[in-house]
């Protein structure tokens, strides 16, 4: 594509975003909530059109540079209002992969292919060395909640997770929450056994194509990680910030995408409800972290808020009330990668929210 053609397409996208602001007498800075979606590319609205503060967004960028952010972006009411860093570069999602799997589960639950109240015994799920009869009574729902009570070694487990893992048999299924890679990996096995599709093929078919991911290549951006200790592989994904934001927007819009219901409103509500209070102001749903009482990353929100979170600072924040999505990425596979903690992301998020129209 020529430079002139690319410039013309970008100009059209800007014009479309601006038209949204002023159609039917809408005031400047007020995008129509819940109606705008990206096409092949994101419509972009500069501060003059969106009402966001350019000066305060620059302050947020300074914070991002200071804490080691790789890339971040802000989507408000379906329009990209700010981007920092290489938002088109696919990066390892780390544990945000689990939130992606939650959406895929919802799609198959909606189709009545998956019954999340089935036990592992009913599904024929086991592992190396064998699971106990009690462990096999764990349900798929309990795995989604990270409450299986199965403390078998797992692939793709950080040292801290291994050190904190409870003893086998110390808790019965459903009685105790532990952030458990065994649960998450076994969910991948369960998904593939019931649906006959790999997690990666489903990601491509059910999300990447319908949501028109711009940067995702199935063969390049997915890989299974296996370890000798377990027969259940980890499903590692690389997705760019701007493609991850499409998933965030889908969640903010209760599973709707351009007139099509990709995943049901009921599943979105069920999967992003807190079933365990894991820390002050923080709960856990079905592979999503849930803000309690409107809090997330030490920031106050006007209603329900939830997030996907991964090692080194992979964050997908969804604020449905304000139709707001914030994505934060770190290239964790880079040599000497620098971790951005949840607290530091909270500092950045505070600057981002302060730049919003009216400061929210």
Can you walk me through this structure?
The protein is an alpha+beta fold. The protein folds into 2 domains: 1-89 and 244-360, 3-Layer(aba) Sandwich (Beta-lactamase); 90-239, DD-peptidase/beta-lactamase superfamily (Beta-lactamase, 3-Layer(aba) Sandwich), CATH 3.40.710. Helices cover 36% and strands 18% of the residues. It has 13 helices and 15 strands. It has helices at 3-22, 47-50, 54-67, 96-110, 120-123, 140-144, 159-164, 181-195, 199-208, 218-221, 241-252, 265-271, 342-354; strands spanning 71-76, 79-84, 91-92, 222-227, 230-239, 256-257, 260-261, 276-279, 282-284, 289-291, 295-296, 299-300, 306-310, 314-319, 324-329. The strands form 4 sheets. It has an 8-stranded antiparallel beta sheet with strand order 2-1-15-14-13-10-9-8, with helices on both faces. Strands 3-5-4 form a 3-stranded antiparallel beta sheet. A hairpin with a 4-residue loop joins strand 9 (282-284) and strand 10. Helix 3 packs antiparallel against helix 13 and helix 4 (96-110) runs parallel beside helix 8. The two termini are 39 Å apart. 47% of the residues are buried.
């Amino acid at each position: 594509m020529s430079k002139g053609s690319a410039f013309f397409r970008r100009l059209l996208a800007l014009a479309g975003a601006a038209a949204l602001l002023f159609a039917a007498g809408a005031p400047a800075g007020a995008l129509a909530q819940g109606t705008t979606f990206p096409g092949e590319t994101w419509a972009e609205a500069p501060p003059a059109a969106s009402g966001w503060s350019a000066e305060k967004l620059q302050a947020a960028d300074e914070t991002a540079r200071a804490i080691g952010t790789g890339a971040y972006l802000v989507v408000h009411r379906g329009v990209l209002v700010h981007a920092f860093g290489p938002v088109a570069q696919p990066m390892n999602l780390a544990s945000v992969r689990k939130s992606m799997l939650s959406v895929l589960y919802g799609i198959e639950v909606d189709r009545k292919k998956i019954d999340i109240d089935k036990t592992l015994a009913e599904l024929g799920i086991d592992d190396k060395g064998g699971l106990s009869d009690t462990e096999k009574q764990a349900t798929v729902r309990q795995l989604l909640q990270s409450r299986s009570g199965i403390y078998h070694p797992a692939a793709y487990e950080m040292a801290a997770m291994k050190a904190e893992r409870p003893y086998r048999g110390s808790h019965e299924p459903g009685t105790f929450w532990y952030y458990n890679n065994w649960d998450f990996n076994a969910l991948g096995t369960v998904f593939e056994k019931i649906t006959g599709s790999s997690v990666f093929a489903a990601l491509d078919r059910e999300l990447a194509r319908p949501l028109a991911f711009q940067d995702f290549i199935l063969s390049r951006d997915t890989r299974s990680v296996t370890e000798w200790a377990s027969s259940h592989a980890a499903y590692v994904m690389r997705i760019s910030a701007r493609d991850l934001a499409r998933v965030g927007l889908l969640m903010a819009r209760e599973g709707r995408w351009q007139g099509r219901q990709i995943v049901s409103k009921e599943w979105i509500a069920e999967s992003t409800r807190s079933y365990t209070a894991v820390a002050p102001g923080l709960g856990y749903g079905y592979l999503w972290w849930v803000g309690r009482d409107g809090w997330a990353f030490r920031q106050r929100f006007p209603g329900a808020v939830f997030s996907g979170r991964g090692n080194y600072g992979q964050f997908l924040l969804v604020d449905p009330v304000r139709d707001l999505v914030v994505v934060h990425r770190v290239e964790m596979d880079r040599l000497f990668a620098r971790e951005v903690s949840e607290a530091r992301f909270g500092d950045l998020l505070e600057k981002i929210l302060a730049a919003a129209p009216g400061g929210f």
